[in-house]
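example protein:
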Amino acid sequence: MVNLKLFVWALVAGSFIPLVGILNGRAGRVLGDPLFACVLVFIVGLVLAIAVTAFTGRGMPDFQSFGQLKGIEYFAGFVVAFYVLSATVLAGKIGVANFIVMAVSGQVIFSLLIDHFGLFGAPIRPVNLLQFGGAIMLLGGLVITQFANGK
């Protein structure tokens, strides 16, 4: 069984996600462009990652080993940057709730595909009927939220 603390950590981390679009939008207005806010986010993130790494006693990575990574492993940085840029630009245009509903729907559906087919080297975990039903319910909720918004 997974430690409850890890679930709480994941819940707290997820609860902060809606703040990305709002806070970056605010920073973008002050800085003159939402893309500048994204640069700020990654600078702060880099400083935090280095501080946490140092605080936990892990030292610094061997930067020569970065050359051993495959291109797809660098893709995670692209994905994070794309998400932050998207949240920054879209949350102000379509609303935070709409952005999050769409983003979470995409995450759940793609996660099920990754698990079911073992994409990107993930272990294969076949999707069962309950998981598929949950994804269908999620999509139903997505449709309902859009009708409720008059879209």
Summary: The longest helix spans residues 4-31. The CA atoms of residues 33 and 66 lie 32 Å apart.
